[in-house]
Amino acid sequence: MTNDDSTDDSSQGYRSVTLKNVAERAGVSPITVSRALNRPELVSPKRRARVEQAARELGYVPNRMAGALASARTHVIPVIVPSLSNVVFIEVIQGIQEVLEHDGYQLMLGNTEYDLQREQTLVSALLGWTPAGTILAGLRHLDETRALLAGWGRPLVEIMEYGQDCIDMNVGLSHYQAGASMARHLIERGYRHIGFVGTQMTNDYRARQRCDGHLHALEEAGLATHHVFALAAPSTPALGGRALLAALQQAPELDAIFFANDDLAVGAILQAQRNAIPVPERIAIAGFNGLSLGELVTPQLTTIVSPRYRMGKMAATVLLRRISGLPVTPRTVDVGFSLAVREST
Amino acid sequence: MTNDDSTDDSSQGYRSVTLKNVAERAGVSPITVSRALNRPELVSPKRRARVEQAARELGYVPNRMAGALASARTHVIPVIVPSLSNVVFIEVIQGIQEVLEHDGYQLMLGNTEYDLQREQTLVSALLGWTPAGTILAGLRHLDETRALLAGWGRPLVEIMEYGQDCIDMNVGLSHYQAGASMARHLIERGYRHIGFVGTQMTNDYRARQRCDGHLHALEEAGLATHHVFALAAPSTPALGGRALLAALQQAPELDAIFFANDDLAVGAILQAQRNAIPVPERIAIAGFNGLSLGELVTPQLTTIVSPRYRMGKMAATVLLRRISGLPVTPRTVDVGFSLAVREST
DNA sequence: CTGAAAGCGCTTACAG
DNA sequence: CTGAAAGCGCTTACAG
To answer: Does residue B76 come out as left (phi exceeding 0), alpha (psi in the -120 to 50 range) or beta?
Structure first.
């Protein structure tokens, strides 16, 4: 069923109920309608009621484009992440969304798929919405992107990782330290042949940072550091399972594997179970993220817990503070991480 | 570090490079700039080059608000879903996003949290962006919402479920039939005391439809239909595990449980493993969705596979067809489902 | 192929 | 408390 009501609807040239229509119906000027709707305290109760009724009767929906253009301000916040397949980003987005929505801001989602060139295109397109501020995953961007954002002059939060050199504000954690922390745990437990399995490490430089931290810790302990397995496909439990088997075949001396994330690690545990490989006796398994699934598998997964939801909320909160002109100090926040030692190591 | 460059940046009254600025720099009229950027074939190569260079030098980003207002058309598509915690919606969104982005449309995300009143608020707010079309999860809405959308006059696709009474277009599957299909499978396998476990069934009426279909099939087979466990919290594997134990305690005669989704069912399998409850010998377990994790757990999960990603792509595709004025027949598509019989039943 | 004029729907100072 | 005027940055016919 198509619908052809009220106004002239030529499918493209469709124009809906406007401020002016409401004004006519309420018998006031357009400007009074605008005020009655946006700053009701400035309008007499009587007229306000008339306007509100007229708006309701007409099914008036304010045109945000016009409002934004006239006021040179919007309630749009682009949020640009490298992936949606990873639950981690979903949780961050949920934290952000909750805060934004509470204050009447609309999230606009961009997905770079770990491609900095796509990020550049997205940033440039989204700035065309004259957003009030922006949230961007990561601290690494093309020079062009950095320049664009630096010259933009509105609040910006870079999230996920913590480091120097942010453009405006930064809320994240050190992936290098997280990697080192897990490696030290494995070393303390007595493992001596520790491998690392990651995916898409060329583009996912945060996973690479965890790997680097891990390698650094191994080196410090005088252990071999050449057991790094880098896979091309996106992380899934199934891939983790296959990677476990492949790694054990290629390097039977391995006694522990640190997976770049919990998706892979959980898959490895499930695969080990299928193949009757004792974990952690034959091979210890560790992950990164702290997904709840890790507590349900047997053995339960040792992992590093990152405060994703909280990071999202915090990023949105400092952004909105800056947007409303309030001071934000410090400009950078390390949300940290914690090591959850469970049964798999 | 804050940035204060170029233009006057009073943080709110900030205005950026405009068409006019580019025109001045290129030594042409604004209208030529607009054309050079939007319909380059209408402009002489020489001027076009001048314009493009000026735009690049100035870092010009077109103001979409102004463009939208002037042309009465946007490239915005709101996508409204009931939840982001559920991977299912993420996959649908990915499918949609891929198609939209390819055609230069921007997805605007709304999350109702299974609350029809919130849906109404969101729809009304998002229509203010004068979107080119809309994608909305579900066929049930408040009367107010239906009226608003029916009067709106632009293309709309309702997704996830298939049924009569869509407002404009519909791409989905029958949850009632899916539920019945799984129940019949369990009956064929010889199970006679079959329970159903679902969460938030008051609001998640698609889960309720699966339950209804399941109950109908049991009734047809002359089996008891009173083993329905409705939980209040959102679905997680952990909750599924707890629900399994609770159900077996309350109704020890149960020999099979159909979980409303794979999140719950996978958790139940993992929990059974921990508690050494043989699956399917003591209790058969089935799910709904076809998440890949179901193939990794032991025993592998019997489930119903829904084509989420494909549904998302299809919905976006028919929407864009309608937006560009092409005919779409039929207006409703049943994407179907398939029963994946694995080890857990 | 190029430009002057009008207008999209709203808000912002500015007067009353 | 209320309204007339100007303008936000762009595009759309309409003339040349």
So the answer is: beta
In this structure, chain A runs to a length of 345
SS3 B48: helix
A316 plus A168 within the same structural domain: yes
Cβ contacts of B124 within 8 Å, gap of 6 or more: A61, B148
Same domain, residue pair B57 and B79: no
The label of the residue with tokens 């590093």 reads A304
pLDDT at A258: 98
* Number of domains present in the structure of chain A: 3
For A92, residues 6+ apart whose C-beta sits below 8 A from its C-beta are: A81, A137, A159, A160, A308, A309, A311, A312, A315
Q: Which nucleotide is closest to B19, CA to C1'?
A: D9
Q: Which residues form the domain of A208?
A: 175-305
Residue B4 in this model has a pLDDT that exceeds 50: no
Residue A182 sits in the same domain as residue A328 = no
Average pLDDT over residues B210-219: 97
CB distance B130–A59 less than 8 Å?
Answer: no
- Please tell me if residue B148 touches chain A, with a CB cutoff of 8 Å: yes
User: What does the pLDDT read at residue B325?
Assistant: 86
Whether any strand C atom is under 7 angstroms from the Cβ of A20: the reply reads yes
Q: Is the confidence at residue B13, as pLDDT, over 90?
A: no
Worst-scoring range by mean pLDDT, A311-315, B124-128, B276-280? B124-128
- Asked whether residue B44 falls in the same domain as residue B184, the answer is no
| Widest Cα–Cα separation across chain B | 85
Per the CB < 8 Å rule, is B65 touching A74?
yes
Question: B245: which DSSP letter?
Answer: H
B91-146 tens-digit pLDDT: 999 999 999 988 989 899 899 999 999 999 999 889 988 899 999 999 999 999 99
**Does the nearest atom of strand C lie within 7 Å of B44's Cβ?**
yes
Tokens read off for A200:
């898409």
Q: Is residue A287 part of a domain?
A: yes
Q: Is residue B1 assigned to a domain?
A: no
- What is the number of residues in chain B? 345
| A66 in contact with nucleic chain C (CB within 7 A) | yes
Contact of A115 with chain B, judged by CB distance below 8 Å, is answered with no
Nearest Cα residue in chain B from A3: B153
> Is A278 part of the contact surface with chain B (CB cutoff 8 Å)?
no
- Domain boundary among the residues B62, B96, B119 is at B62
Is the same domain home to A184 and A212?
yes
Q: How many angstroms away from the CA of B255 is the closest CA of chain A? A: 23
Residue B141 lies in a domain: yes
Set of chain B residues whose Cβ sits within 8 Å of the Cβ of A330: none
Question: Domain check: are A180 and A167 in the same one?
Answer: no
Q: What is the mean pLDDT of residues A92-96?
A: 95
Which amino acid type is present at position A111?
N
Same domain, yes or no, for B216 and B328? yes
Looking at the structure, do residues B47 and B87 belong to the same domain, yes or no? no
CB contact under 8 A, B273 and A298: yes
First to last CA, chain B: 60
Q: Which nucleotide is nearest to A69 (CA to C1')?
A: D8
- Which residues from chain A sit within 8 angstroms of residue B298, using beta carbons? 270, 273-274
